[in-house]
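Submission sheet (multi-component)
Chains listed below:
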Amino acid sequence: MIENIDLSLVDWSRAQFALTAIYHWLFVPLTLGLSFILAIMETIYVRTGKEEWKRITQFWMTLFGINFAIGIATGIILEFEFGTNWSNYSWFVGDIFGAPLAMEAILAFFLESTFVAVMFFGWNKVSKKYHMVSTWLVAIGASLSALWILVANAWMQNPVGMMFNPDTARNEMVNFWAILFNQVAVDKFLHTISSGFLLASMFVLGISAWFLLRKREDLLAKRSILVAGVFGLLSSLLVAFTGDGSARRVSKVQPVKFASMEALYEGKNNAGLIAFGILKDTNKKIGEKSVKEFAFKIEIPGLLSVLTGGDKDAYVQGLADHMFGNEKLGIISVPDKIQRGIVARDALTSYKRAKLINDTAQIEALKGVFNDKDFHDKYFRYFGYASINKPEDVIPDVTISFYSFHFMVILGFLFIMIFSAALYLLFRGTIADKRWFLWIALLSIPLPYVAGELGWILTEVGRQPWIIQDMMTVSKAVSQISTGSVITTFILFAVLFTGLLISEISIMVKQIKTGPKH
Amino acid sequence: MTFTISHLFLQHYWWIIISLLASFLVFLMFVQGGQSLIYSLPQNNLQKKMIVNSLGRKWEFTFTTLVTFGGAFFASFPLFYATSFGGAYWVWIAILFSFTIQAIAYEFRSKPNNVFGQKTFDLFLFLNGSLGPFLIGVAVATFFTGAMFSLNRMNQVHWATPWYGLEALLNVRNLALGFAVLFLARINGLLYIINSVDDESLIKRSVKRLITNSIPFLIFFLYFIVSLLVSKGFAVDSVTGNIIIEKFKYLHNFVEMPVVLVLFLAGVIGVLSGIGITILKKSVTGIWFSGAGTILSVFSLFLIAGFNGTSFYPSIYDLQSSLTIRNASSSLFTLKTMMYVSFIMPFVIAYIWYAWKAINRTKITEGEMNSDGHAY
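Outcome: structure written.
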């Protein structure tokens, strides 16, 4: 049953998860960032006592409310889809992966959902300070929830802190702190929440620019630009800094993903950083996959070596090093890893057979094998390779990885410039007259959304074919249900999410046009 | 001083936590119960708005409890998560779908330019209000009546029907619990509205509806409980560890765990007295009795499903694939780590209570609905 995997089932399950995740990420970053902007604005109101700041806070809070619920709605589906569509995954690593999800709910969701009610309905029911603290708690709750889900995701990229138990045929947690302080998790958390802060700042900046273009709500617009400009500039710098750290980390823990996002086939010393390039197919192939090369590129010589290895002579690994192995660097070839994975899988099959016929000697012997660190490091860590059919299957889609990474980085630098310009013009007192800039700010609202989605596409597509790096492929993780069922639910969710998105945008535009209450 | 905590203790501890979450979830589904009444209960638009706003301030608690229930089940009994969600696909997807449409309905329903109109979002509230409790009741009933799955040596699930869980709707006992949960949610919804809305005519109408909802609740609930007590159950053989069919298993569980029986009876009395004091004494505090009663009775039902050597998710397709709190649980290390996390729950409950009181200090009034504050 499990051995004959229906590829269309895998693809539809993957499509459904991608659909949910992409929609989820259209709403969550605004919640993450706008909640802090609201908290900052309300704090200014409480400290200064100026009613204008209350009005400003309440205006942005209305927009926050429209967006908030839809993020929750798509989030619950994501959580349960691990079970409904990836049930083999849920068992294989549920002992580790379930814990952060539960903690997210216990430690973060309750905080967020409890105090969001006070935030919306408590203006005349609780004291000013109680209300302000509630707004801060909503912001903290939102970021905390991001922490736990990103810890879970980071573990899929870089599985740590666990041990395989052949009796239960699953991985089990042995070190909680290793999972929480997984370096990938730390990078990912900081990079992701700061990208949410950035997105919300651009949202506030863009809408405020629209008010200035229409010569309405001058005070609200300028004050909002002040908060969004400062918060946005700091966030965009943090995004760039953490993004750099993330990329370095990927080069260490997921070198194949890194080589793909740089479209680096042959490893080299003095590797240049491609600021941007256009890829084209060549006649060369790795297995059945075409090798891409640059039809055009803007390259900064030596910089990739400097960024990843500390100096320009440092060697940066290419896809070929991983496919065919590189003895000098101690990299094992994919065919070799496949063989090692098969050894690990066969050991598990033998163990299960021994249990079935109660062959105690064999059971004890194999238990020893599974507890042996050497076996784990040399064989079991490649367990997932046993289900790789063709070596080139371990290479993710280079085109998608390359473009999503590079467009994201370019946008990241653009955001720093926009926020800097906004603050510069605001302090010069000329922002309302610079209509060209106001238009840029307004039209830039979608760009952080694009950058955020590109980041997730890179993270997830770049990890393929793995659901857990080197341990389990996506096709092994899928629930054995009918493809027709998944297609039906895919269509249902696609229609629902699209309808909700249209509704949200329409309501949001109307509320913005109506403006704050006077 | 050091002491060791056994895996078995933690498995029981986590089943208690799951049972508590389930019981709070069923109580908090008063939100859904109230939503299922939005067409029949209010006399005019203002009353409808008051109902929606009274429930709408609590919907996130129910939602978050459902998410926590799912997350905690995943963390503590991942084999259940993998088996039931990955097998009874359609039941869970239908539940999820109904909660998704709820989440946005409150915020969007009365906003201008919402594209689909208020009627659509009110329909979403009604659908979630009716389907949510009913389907959760049906899904929980399979803890007692069994499901159609098998597990292979690697614990991978195979579902034995092409209906992926919908076949549960063909079992009368499952339907009975589904309807019992739905009518209980409606009862609690009415009691909550009576408690939180300041409108005499709406309260009068709610009391009338309370009577008409209590009768079907009692019929479905009694049918389910009696059939449960006289039915065969899925027991774990204490010698071999195999799953065996045992006559009157759930009755035995009540008798062998008298504390659970007392909790169950106290729960039933709580629900009945909540209904009783509202109808007979015109009290507005019935929700607290009925709410506490709901929590106690659901909690004790979960305990007899999982404790005392019982399979909490039996397979009627392959008996030995049935799940117990022992074979479906996480490792000792994970359960212990999660136990430490669970110690924060009293603090969470305390701040929820604090915030709840702050918002409910004043009742929903016509004046508030007509003011320009945040309203659904």
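Remark: Chain B has a mean pLDDT of 93.
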